[in-house]
Amino acid sequence: MRVCSFSYRSLLTALFAGGLTASATAQETAKEARRPDVHFVPTPYEVVDSMLAIADVKKGDRLFDLGSGDGRIVIAAAKRHGTRGVGIDIDPERIKESRANAKKAGVTDKVEFRQADLFETDLSKASVVTLYLLPQLNLRLRPKIFRELQPGSRIASHAFDMGSWEADTNFTVGYSGVYYWVVPANFGGEWSLTAPGGRQYSLSLTQKFQKVEGKAQRDGQAAKLEGIRVWGDSVTISLADGDSALRLQGVVDGGSMSGTAGGAGTNGNGKWTATRKGPAPKLGQETED
Predict the structure, then answer these.
(1) pLDDT at res. 25
(2) Whole-angstrom distance, CA of residue 198 vs CA of residue 279
(3) 218 has which bridge partners?
(4) Which residues are CB-neighbours of 93 under 8 A, at least 6 positions away?
(5) Is the CB of residue 173 less than 8 Å from the CB of residue 180?
(6) What burial class does residue 50 get, using C-beta atoms within 10 Å of its C-beta: 0-12 exposed, 13-18 middle, 19+ buried?
(7) Would you list the domain boundaries of the chain?
(8) What does the alpha-carbon distance between residue 84 and residue 78 come to, in Å, rounded to a whole number?
(9) Which helix (H) or strand (E) holds 202?
(10) Residue 279's CB: how many other CB atoms inside 10 A?
(11) I want to staple 59 with a disulfide (CB 3.0 to 4.6 A). Which of 82, 86, 195, 268 is the partner?
């Protein structure tokens, strides 16, 4: 009876272990067999050239190509500019093809290709992102771009835009559209600004993507905020206060801004600073209407 009892337990153990192994194998196989979200259609080489040009890709950049296909964008950047790049694609056949193409081009020391889900890929090391996806995938990707990329990072998309995040530049190459954005810093919120001559202003800024508007006050009285232009982490603020007109140019660094000023009333001191009061509002997480 003991022998039978032991054999029975052993059989159950073996079946249980075998079931776990089969389950894990099935999960891994399912992961490997996941179908791409986009069928592979290569970006024409003249469009590749235009995407790299508009993004001003340089040797010191780190380029991530999302849905990299046969690797042509990453490989072209490496060959022409010495740029280090990473291609992300869920399709193992495309990854195999990309690696072979990189070897033929002699750039395997500068590029890598990862079989991965682009939505699970950390983009924080990228200074340039290129993509040729579908409109709905671009919209899903948009909040991730704002969470992970640094202000000033550049994005070039073949064929499709990003919904209500208007492109900074767009143009046509042959029959193909190219869209380009610079990721803006977060300028939103309440700010205390010190202008040349020690004048104090309160700014209340609202931001949607790269567009910023708001109100200004000095000593409780409204001042005219004539315009704000944002480009990456750089900002230009045009401010009118009575007979004074200020043009403030500078950069944002987290909760502070600083730069130089021109215009009437600067009193020879062309420096200005600003500090955000309270937490920064979320940026780039807006959903489509």
Answers:
(1) 41
(2) 25
(3) 221
(4) none
(5) no
(6) buried
(7) 45-182, 189-276
(8) 6
(9) strand 200-208
(10) 9
(11) 82
Pick one of 2.40.128.120, 2.30.30.90, 3.10.20.30, 3.40.50.2300 as the CATH number of 189-276.
Answer: 2.40.128.120
Nearest to 201 by CA among 234, 185, 233, 225: 225
For the stretch 184-210, pLDDT in tens is: 999 999 999 999 988 899 999 999 999
Both tokens of 224, joined, read 């005219």
The torsion angles phi and psi of 46, rounded to 5 degrees, stand at: -70, -30
Q: E strands of 132-220, at which residues? A: 154-158, 169-173, 176-182, 189-194, 200-208, 211-218
Asked whether the whole model's pTM tops 0.70, one would answer yes
- 77-125 confidence digits (pLDDT tens): 999 999 999 999 999 999 999 999 999 999 999 999 999 999 999 999 9
**Could you please report the per-residue DSSP string of 174-188?**
TTEEEEEEEPPP---
User: Which region holds residue 57: left if phi is over 0, alpha if psi is between -120 and 50, else beta?
Assistant: beta
Closest Cα partner for 179 from 25, 47, 17? 47
- Residue 267: predicted pLDDT: 57
